[in-house]
Give the backbone structure.
Amino acid sequence: DTFNIVTLLSAVETEADRRKMLGHDAEKEGGPALADLLIHQIEFADVLLMNKIDLIPKEEREGVVAGVKGLLTKLNPLAKVIIPEKAKFEDFDVAHVINTNLFDLGKAQTSAGWIAELDK
């Protein structure tokens, strides 16, 4: 969700902010916090699809898209980042995201996120 990711992640700048926004006992209450889940999904993905770009004001769009794409690339440099050309996935070729054959179990099992989860 390109439109909201910057707002969500920029609102959680410190551990105190994170606790205030997402609840101080999020881990104890049944799972990781929302921001953690979002980041884990980005780090583990093979394909990242940026959507809702049409909701960003035109005068800000280029900068926001570049910033979000840069963030995604930092979190997961190996993922393929796709920016649809048209709003609401009009004429979008689903072959970009379905049956890509990009998943590699061996690589996944050696990823930092996978190892950190196993160490819990």
